[in-house]
Amino acid sequence: MQESILVYRHLFYFKIAVGLVAAAAVAYALHNPLGQPNGGTWLGYTLGGIAGGLMIWLAWFGVRKRKYGVGKLPLEDWLSAHVYLGLAVLAISTLHAGFQVGVNIHTVLYVLTIIVIVSGLIGVYFYVRFPRLLSENRRGMSMEIMFGQIAELDREMRQIAMELDDATNAAVLDATQNTVIGGSLIRQLRGRDPDCPTTAARMFVERSETRGHDARRRQLITRIMRKEELVRRLRLDIQLRAWLRVWLFVHVPCSIAALVALAVHIVTVFYYW
Amino acid sequence: MVRGIGLGEACKIAIVGSGPGGLSAASHAAKMGVEHVLLERTDHLSDTIYKYQRGKYVMATPDILPLRSDVSFTAGKREAILDKWDQQCRDLNLNVKFKADVKSIKKDNGTFSIALTSGQTFHAENVVLAIGLQGNLNKLACPGADHPTVQYQLDDPDLYEGETIVVIGAGDAAIENAVALAKQNTVIIVNRRDEFARAKQGNLALILNAIEKGDVQCYYNSSPARIEDGALALDTAEGEAIIQCHRIIARLGASAPRKFVESCGISFPNNDPSALPEVSSTYESNVPGLYVIGALGGYPLIKQAMNQGYEVVEYIMGNRIAPADQPLLQRKFQGLGNADVDAVIAEVRRIIPVFAGLNPLQLRETLLDSDVHVLAPGETVFNRNDYTNTFFTILRGEVGIQLNPNDSSIMVKLPPGAFFGEMGLISGRRRTATVVATKDCVLLETPRRTMLKLIQSVDSVRRTLDQTAIGRQVQTHLAPGVPLEALKDLVENAEIVRFKPGETIFRQGDQGDDMHLIRSGSCTVSMRVAGRDIVMSYVPSGNYIGEMALLSDAPRSATVKAAHATETIRIKGDTFKELLDNQPKLKASVEAKFRERIMQNEQMQRRPEAGNIIQFLIDQGVGEGTDVLLIDESLCVHCDNCEKACAETHGGISRLNREAGPTFATIHVPTSCRHCEHPHCMADCPPNAIHRAQDGEVYIDDSCIGCGNCERNCPYGVIQLAAAPDVKFNLFNWLLFGTGPGPGEEMKYAKAHHDGQTPSDKQKRAVKCDMCKDISGGASCVRACPTGAAIRVSPEEFMSVALLSK
User: Fold this and answer.
1) ipTM score here?
2) In which domain, by residue range, is B426 found?
3) How far is A83 from chain B (nearest CA, A)?
4) Is B477 domain-assigned?
């Protein structure tokens, strides 16, 4: 229906970024500085200026995103540009450094930039891939409906278990009371629970050999399995949405750190000139 | 001092009927010292109001009209009003004769003889007939109308307890009865239409509230089919429904006691059962000296009748005083130079046929509601694609309609008396042409609400409007470029048909001998493929359907259903074929469309999922929208930036709920206004605060009083009552220091910081999406979507096959 940010406006911002990187690469190839290429030549300053300017502009995205009802371009333009020009920063800053690394503040900035860009790339992957997975997983059902169905299944499961032996009853009770959906960040990101009481209850009922209650047991197992499926889908939903957010916890602080490092980098370069 | 008039003596004025009109006339006569007699059939004054249900709150509408009478009247309880009148009647020494049931009124030698059923006769020089209509109640037209369980009046609702009672009717009386009965009974109200359009605003709120709370159950779009012992059969939109009940109360209004009135020598303008006698501007009938005031003269409201009672006595005494609303109209007509109000009204009646059928009071009221525009040649009245929905009539001068968007010199000229703008009014869509003044002209612009009321209550307005509108709609949408004369035969044989939501217009396999032009609403076309109905397309108003069977002389190739309430113009097949034979150009274009449809159907059969999407969107009511927010779930990252943007551009309150609402395939319909063609919210707004802007945005202005009617009337739950938050989001405080609420977070922040109480006890007002009409650059929700998942679409574009088969 709609197009994704990657192909937005027929790759308009991708083309700009490619043009920029190509120009920088050509200039780098043609440039013949005294000694080793580095940030101190005229081209180095130019590339550094471009990369630094871009970094500040890229960080401004966080502000622009929250400035509502202003600006000529929709936010989708900004995000598309943010992605491609952000990638361009990686190439331009590498050229700016003349492929030199060392143990100093400049390399800290370079490493931070890489972390920001790589985390951003991961974010792009999530943004492009996960919405469809989320939508397919929900199949038009809202979370409330799924939770409602689980509550109904729990009630039925307890009712059936009442007629069965104590051990089964206890397993079912555990499944209805102690199945956690969501929970801590780590749990959310994992999206599954290896010790899930619902799964344990199903396995227990499948193994147990209660005589005479076959019909009841079959009913119980189908209900537990339906609940398992719903729990799995809910956990996947929560997991996907958690990943859609969690990368920002790396991306945003590191970009702020990178801005600080950028300021230090610029000051030290000019201070020790 | 007034002389008491005895039998045999001729008084100056005899007044028949002691309702508000008659009472006011008698009091003014008494005040002026004129010999009079007031004849009342019952043993008390004002029987109609006396028979109002006990404790009824009597309203004093129209508010704008000043009261002019020697007896007082303000809105209040029935008992208080009647007591006051009895008191004033005694104080003024009125000459009232109770139990005086008038049998006949005859005029000989300039004097009227008024014979009573008791055998007595009174004589008078002038007679004022103020008998109202309530002596002649309308009855049900279905079998069983006289069944003992049916009653046409209700005196005291408290007399009934624990019964199931069906109230039939949608007027004020029906609503008041239903709500009062609901206190101790199970009450069902039956409304022939889909809204309570005839009721006063206060009653409207009352009944909607009662239905909302479940006190009264309502059957809309339903009418009684028959009455049997203990049950009522109803024709509803979903088929027949049988309601078991103890009692049926039908409040269907009343009509003139025609036989009696005619026996007095008064003539009626036509044979219409709802017709009323014609009177002059001094309320005099065709019999000199015999005057008609109040409901019988077409003035059903208490205040109007009382003013007339006062005025008629003045007229009889030879004083030509001006009506009470004269100064208001005077101001309205200021732009017309030194025009006299009566002269302008006479001119309107003479020149404008649509309004000619209104009684003088309806006309005055309509003019009070309307705006008078004086335009110079070249000035634009409105532009093509404007989203305004007022109705224009030409009083003087001439306007030109630019039918061709590419060539503004091609114009159809409209002379004085013509009207335009009715297409927007009927279809609820954008203006189909630009209209400019071509000479100095005077136009009357009448608001949508006033026109809808007139269309509903005055048959002649609807008929005149429909006749012309059919011609124009056929010309605009079906046969552009064909002169109206060539369409005469087709238009005369065409008729307007109404369909309920989901009703079938025609079925696949039926023999088709006519076609339909959709004038309002929209339809879905579906075909049965491999035993399953597949929706082929969505057809909005302004398109025609059913021509395929006509052209190919084959049975219907598809089923067409109304997507929501729809009106079509049914065109007879032979007249259409004849037209095509005479108009080769038109024939070519219709055949081109025919081929296009066949191809479209082929395409859709290969892609049934696109049809499913159309069906899903129609089920969600998207079909009646004009601008709908949709979310492509394959792109949505659930960041809620759309909601935050909405809140932050609208005083902190989001008008959309992204997560809520249904999803089909990857299309999600969030809870957000669709700006319906005929907005449900607009149906009943007491301060008339809901408008449609030029670009189609339906918005609520600052005059909202927070009554909640629109919130209740919206079937999509997109209106909420809210007060602006106290703490505003500040980006830098929040981003850098973590203080204050985040974007769109007012409520959560307030909860955390004010012990769960929302900090505001300000007046709540209705808020809804206004499509960011006050912000340049378009809807904030869409602009703030980082991934392009949020889109705003018009249904006809979105549901076009070309887009869906992408």
Assistant:
1) 0.91
2) 327-457
3) 11
4) no
